[in-house]
Specification:
The chain is mainly alpha-helical. It has six helices and no strands. Helix 1 packs antiparallel against helix 2, helix 2 crosses helix 6 and helix 5 packs across helix 6. About 35% of the residues are buried.
C-alpha cells in the first residue's frame, strides 16, 4: 500500500512533535535536578526552559501542536516529579502562558521580540500559579506574593527569551523546511 502525502506529513509532524516533547521534558528534568531555588530561594520560580520549546512550536509550527506538547509535558512532569497540587499549579500556569502566546501572536513581528513574549508568558504563568493557590486555599493572601513572582518572571522571561532569540533562526528553518531525511 503506497504512502500518501497526507500520511507522510502526519507522520513527520508526529515525529517532530515527539522529538520536541522529549526536548521540553528533558529541560523540565534538568530544572528538577538543578533547581533555580539553589540560587534564588523563591517558591514557584523556575527558569522555564521548556517554554522555549513550546514558544518555538507555537510561533514556527502550530498553536495546536504547542498546546498538545505543553499539556503532555505538564502531565508527565507532574506524574514523575510532582503531585496533584503541582499539576494544578502547572496547568493553570500553562493555560495562562498559552493565552499570553495567543495575545502576543498578532503583534509578534511588529512589537514583540521573543524576549518580550517570554517575559509576558512568564508573567502569565505566575498569575496562573497565584490563581491556583487562591483556588486551593480560598484566600487572597497569595496576591501579596504576586509582585515577587512578577519580578522573577521578568528575569526568567528575559533569560529564556534571549535563548529563544539566539535559537530562533535555526528553529525557523527547521519548521519551514521540515525534517530532511539523510540519504544513506
Amino acid at each position: 500500500m503506497p504512502i500518501t502525502p497526507r500520511a507522510k506529513n502526519t507522520t513527520l509532524r508526529l515525529c517532530r512533535n515527539a522529538a520536541l516533547l522529549v526536548l521540553a521534558f528533558a529541560f523540565s528534568l534538568l530544572e528538577h535536578l538543578l533547581p533555580l531555588s539553589l540560587l534564588l530561594p523563591l517558591p514557584g520560580v523556575k527558569l522555564g526552559l521548556a517554554n522555549v520549546v513550546i514558544t518555538a512550536i507555537f510561533f514556527f509550527g502550530s498553536p495546536l501542536d504547542a498546546a498538545i506538547v505543553s499539556a503532555v509535558r505538564i502531565g508527565l512532569s507532574a506524574l514523575l516529579f510532582g503531585s496533584p497540587v503541582s499539576l494544578l499549579f502547572s496547568t493553570l500556569g500553562g493555560l495562562l502562558t498559552y493565552g499570553t502566546l495567543w495575545l502576543c501572536r498578532p503583534f509578534q513581528k511588529r512589537f514583540f521580540s521573543f524576549v518580550g513574549i517570554s517575559i509576558l508568558s512568564a508573567t502569565g504563568h505566575h498569575i496562573g500559579q497565584i490563581l491556583a493557590a487562591w483556588i486551593l486555599f480560598d484566600s487572597g493572601i497569595f496576591l501579596t506574593y504576586l509582585p515577587v513572582l512578577l519580578l522573577a518572571g521578568l528575569a526568567t522571561g528575559c533569560a529564556t527569551g534571549l535563548l529563544l532569540n539566539v535559537c530562533a533562526p535555526q528553529l525557523r528553518k527547521l519548521f519551514e523546511s521540515g525534517w530532511k531525511q539523510r540519504k544513506e
